[in-house]
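Changelog-adjacent note: as of this version, every example in the card shows the full chain rather than a window. The one below runs 249 residues end to end.
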Amino acid sequence: MKIISTPEKLCKGHYLLHIECAEDCLPGQFVSFKLGRFTDPLIRRPFSIFNKNGNDIEVVFKENGRVTSMLKNMTDFSDVDVSGPYGRGFTVTENENVLLIGGGVGNAPLHYLSKVLKTKNNSITFIYAARSQEFIYCGDRFCTESNEICYVTDDGSFGDKGFAADKLKSVIAKTKFSRAYICGPTIMMKSCAEILIKENIPLEVSLENYFGCGIGICSGCSVDTVDGKKRACVEGPVFDGSKLLWQYL
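Full-length structure tokens:
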């Protein structure tokens, strides 16, 4: 696998990369980057798959620290090692009414999921949450892959004002869903999961953990579940949201 494009700015702090990859991949899986040949930076970084088209994988990343700042400014990727895809992806249903809830850069893996779900004759409602309008990216592409998209921003600069959980309450009051999928900040996923569990709606969540190795060796990404500790990089990053011990995340 190798990066085949320089970063394209999508919106404030968010960038798109293209990766050449002949491997099959599932929505919710991730790829792993190691920048440079030496020990600085030491730890690999995981990035969710935003889209897969033939041998082209798209990744959306947010500038949020030293490694992503380095990546944003790169023009030569010869010393970047890319591996994957890794992890457990989302369950892809058929002929169902499904709800997708994304927050910030966590919307990215849900785009690929929405695309695949649409090919399986699912009806898709997408709640796209962001801090403000300037943090919304690829809105036209999300609209194309959804039957209905609902935007909500913290400051009300685009769509409804409020948080993902606020919009979720109003959406499920009008429509019955057979399954929900969530990815975003932990506090957002927790608040949405509590609502969905109370309504007995099955849900899967993609955790945005840091993965030291990405292949289950270091166990640094372990999370607490009703079935004991699970490694997010191999038993996840997608989990049954009703089995996570949210108070420990």
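Structural remarks: The radius of gyration is 17 Å.
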